[in-house]
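Key result, reporting period 2: structure in, sequence out.
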């Protein structure tokens, strides 16, 4: 039995080398257990995790109310198809609607799938001759053929042409460029309110409001990809609330179920019927397990005051990282909204990530030079400081070299 004789990291890695397609770069560590903002490897080493679950574990590892909800649900009903009604899916949709713009939900299992649903909704809702969607350089919308076509980053397209037609790319933050791209075939503008994978890029003041105005003037749908920014990450339920600009369509995934796989596309009750019966589906979408986890995650955020905690933790990171930026010349810029944090360096970030891991702190690097932290909403002030101490030590040792 695995529990009687657990495998070492090395033995687990050997299984992967033989049996798992090597399409990921992995750290040479096998993780076995997590609790809150800590995670343990097969050798029993404990890490402080500032990037839990690549943004999916926004409530930390194994949040107790989510674990309990899944345990209760799994013994009752694991999956039934969407030819039936379930209380769990109905209540989950209500929870999302009441905390966002009051619309309706389509459920699926991943961010890319939610964006596929949004792309299809755009094409179905707008007149036949309007099909173009404007997306943004540096954006990221997922790995399916549709969502990579929406992703305006050539490195993700290499070897995969031809892409899905109909996407036009605008420079991020450039409203005039967007306006110039709009023609009679344009159907929608699709954007991450804060670019995540693109380096935690926060939109210039007025940019999202400008997109809303252009969408209204030209009768376009405004689609926000909140896969990374949504569900509490910014200290509001959704980033659009932080910026005060409401989209027509919104996609959410990653943290929506407290670490369990799940996703949704939300839209207004007026637009929703365009996704007609038979035009779109997801076999596992909105299944009772994901729904139970999703309900529990949102209830936990409310019961434990985690939106407030997010803002508190965010202030700790801001003051610690800005102080570090003043002291440390390789830190170019610090970008923070809630617990979505980017630290732009003048050097490559990968060695910093490695050095932090050696000191048992887990962080991420994106776009070569941006350290990205997506810590849990229930991180404590002590844990935030502990991790910032390690990061400061590592960054200062680089400067000294
Ligand atoms: C991660 C991510 C996606 C893709 O989500 P998957 O669940 O991996 O398909 C899409 N959009 C954004 C903004 C993301 O951060």
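The corresponding designed sequence is given below.
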């Amino acid at each position: 039995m695995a529990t009687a004789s657990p495998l070492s990291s090395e033995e687990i890695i050997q299984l992967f080398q033989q049996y798992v397609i090597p399409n990921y770069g992995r750290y040479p560590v096998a993780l076995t257990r997590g609790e809150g903002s800590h995670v343990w490897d097969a050798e029993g080493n404990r890490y402080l995790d500032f990037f839990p679950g690549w943004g999916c574990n926004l409530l930390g590892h194994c949040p107790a109310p989510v674990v309990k909800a899944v345990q209760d649900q799994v013994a009752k009903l694991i999956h039934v198809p969407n030819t039936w009604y379930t209380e769990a899916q109905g209540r989950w949709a209500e929870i999302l609607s009441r905390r966002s713009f009051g619309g309706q939900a389509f459920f699926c299992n991943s961010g890319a799938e939610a964006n596929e649903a949004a792309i299809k909704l755009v094409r179905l809702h707008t007149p036949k001759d309007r099909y173009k969607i404007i997306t943004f350089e540096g954006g990221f919308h997922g790995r399916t053929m549709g969502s990579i076509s929406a992703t305006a980053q050539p490195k993700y397209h290499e070897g995969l042409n031809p892409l899905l037609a109909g996407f036009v790319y605008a420079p991020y933050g450039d409203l005039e460029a967007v306006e110039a791209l709009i023609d009679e075939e344009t159907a929608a503008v699709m954007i991450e309110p804060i670019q995540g994978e693109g380096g935690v890029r926060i939109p210039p003041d007025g940019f999202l409001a400008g997109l809303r105005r252009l969408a209204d003037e030209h009768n376009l749908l405004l689609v926000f990809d909140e896969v990374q920014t949504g569900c509490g990450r910014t200290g509001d339920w959704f980033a659009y609330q932080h910026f005060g600009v409401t989209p027509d369509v919104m996609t959410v995934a990653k943290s929506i179920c407290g670490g369990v796989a799940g996703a949704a596309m939300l839209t207004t009750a007026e637009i929703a019927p365009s996704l007609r019966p038979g035009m779109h589906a997801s076999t596992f979408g909105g299944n009772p397990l994901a729904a139970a986890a999703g309900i529990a995650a949102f209830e936990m955020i409310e019961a434990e005051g985690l939106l407030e905690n997010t803002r508190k933790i965010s202030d700790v990171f801001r003051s610690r990282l800005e102080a570090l930026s003043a002291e440390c010349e390789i830190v170019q810029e610090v970008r923070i909204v809630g617990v979505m944090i980017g630290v732009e360096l003048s050097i490559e970030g990968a060695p910093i990530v490695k050095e932090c891991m050696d000191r048992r702190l887990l962080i991420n690097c994106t776009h070569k030079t941006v350290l990205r932290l997506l810590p849990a909403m229930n991180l404590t002030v002590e844990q935030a400081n502990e991790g910032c101490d390690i990061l400061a030590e590592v960054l200062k040792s680089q400067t000294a070299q």
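The two ends are 49 Å apart (CA to CA). Residues 9-62+305-400 form a domain with the Aspartate Aminotransferase, domain 1 fold (CATH 3.90.1150.10). This case is discussed further under Risks and Mitigation.
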